[in-house]
Amino acid sequence: MLVEALPTARRVAFLTNPTNPNTVEFRREAEAVARAKGVKLLSFEVSAPEQIESVIATVAKARPDAFVAAGDPLFWTTHQRLIEAVARHRLPTMWESGTWVEAGGLMAYGANPDDLYRRAATYADRILKGTKPTDLPIDQATKFELAVNLKTARTLNITISSPVLLRADHVVQ
């Protein structure tokens, strides 16, 4: 989605948390997408909040065309700090939730949180009615949202293509 919105992007910084057990899978998926899109993925890691500013400064020195952060609880708890750091370095960013776009991030694509909450309620209902948690199927998200912050795009002097804007579920003016 990011490459479609920024078709000239050829170098994308990818931020992960090495202490997250899902990092290996996140990186593998990101590398596969990057190869398919003809994009070079530049990997960076943050494992503690106090590393954010220095790592983002290092990212900026690598001069990527765009920036993506893997989904991680550390990034959620420090999201405002991350957004401010990438904004200082004028990095176009892709996040996992519209919450990041509301806070000033450029774009987000991820599972619809309201849909996830409804699914969680269904699980809780079934457990309270006696179903063993181990007997419940594992559901994958089925509803996703695209959010774009045009104010941030203007600040970065970026034009988001019409096809991307037409697909956006939420646009911050």
Q: CATH homologous superfamily - what is it?
A: Response regulator
Average pLDDT value?
A: 90
How many domains, as an integer? Answer: 1
Query: In the CATH hierarchy, what is the class?
Result: Alpha Beta
**CATH architecture assignment name:** 3-Layer(aba) Sandwich
The gross shape turns out to be: globular
The largest β sheet comes out as: 7 strands, mixed
How much helix, percentage-wise, in residues? 40-55%
Order of helices and strands: HEHEHEHHEHEHEHHE
Query: CATH topology, which one?
Result: Rossmann fold
Features:
single chain, 173 residues, alpha/beta, Rossmann fold, 7-stranded mixed sheet, 9 helices, globular
State the gist of this model.
The chain has helices spanning 2-5, 23-37, 52-61, 73-77, 79-88, 98-102, 113-128, 150-155, 162-167, and strands spanning 11-16, 40-45, 66-69, 93-95, 107-111, 144-149, 170-172. It is an alpha/beta fold and 173 residues long.
Describe what this molecule looks like in 3D.
This protein is an alpha/beta fold and 173 residues long. The chain has a single domain (2-112, 143-172), classed as Response regulator (Rossmann fold, 3-Layer(aba) Sandwich). The chain contains nine helices and seven strands. It has a seven-stranded mixed sheet with strand order 2-1-3-4-5-6-7. Helix 3 runs parallel beside helix 5 (79-88). The radius of gyration is 17 Å and the shape is globular. The chain starts with a helix and ends with a strand. The model has no long low-confidence stretch (mean pLDDT 90).
